[in-house]
Amino acid sequence: MKKVSFDFDGTLSLHDVQVYASSLVDEGYEVWIVTSRYDLDQLDHRWKKKGDDEPWRHQDLFEVAENCGIRKEHIHFTNREKKAKFLEGKGFIFHLDDDDFELIEIMKSNDPKPIHVDHFEWQYNCNEELEKYETSNNNT
After folding, report:
1. Which of 58, 98, 124, 126 maximizes the CB count within 10 A of its CB?
2. What is the mean pLDDT of the segment spanning 61-75?
C-alpha cells in the first residue's frame, strides 16, 4: 500500500495541505496523520476550551481528517514521543511536518523521507518522492 504521513498542527491544519492530502486520498494513497498530541486517554485535563468544562477532544483534527477522507484508524497520537519512532520501517513514502526537530530525527533514520511544509516547494518535493516510489515499484 502506498502510505504517506502528515503532521497536523502547523501542517495539515493549513488549507493548501488539506487540499493536497485530499487529492492523495482520491488517488488511492493511504494518508495518515502522525501528531505529537496526546491521545484521548493521555489528554491533560488542564487543556480546556475557554468556558467549557469538557477537556479538549481534538475536534479540529477529527474534522479535518473527515473532510480530507482520512480514516480514524490512520490517526496516530505519539503522546510527545518522537514521530520517527512510529514512522520508521512502516513503509511510509514521506512525512510532511513543520517541526525542525521532528524532521531531523526522521532524517537520521532515513525512513521515510522528511519534508518541511515551510519550504516553498513542499508539494513539489512530496510529488517527487511519490514519483520515485512509483518508478522503483514499477521496475521490480
Report:
1. 126
2. 97
Query: Which residue range(s) make up the domain with 30?
Result: 3-138
User: Is a pLDDT exceeding 60 seen at residue 40?
Assistant: yes
DSSP string, 32-85: EEEESSPPTTT--TT-B-TT-SSBP--HHHHHHHHHHT--GGGEEE-TTS-HHH
Give the model's pLDDT for residue 133. 96
Give the CATH number of the domain where residue 103 resides.
3.40.50.620
- Provide the residue type at 47 as one letter: W
β-strand partners of 105:
none
Q: Which three cell numbers stand for residue 24?
A: 492523495
Q: What is the number of domains present in the chain?
A: 1
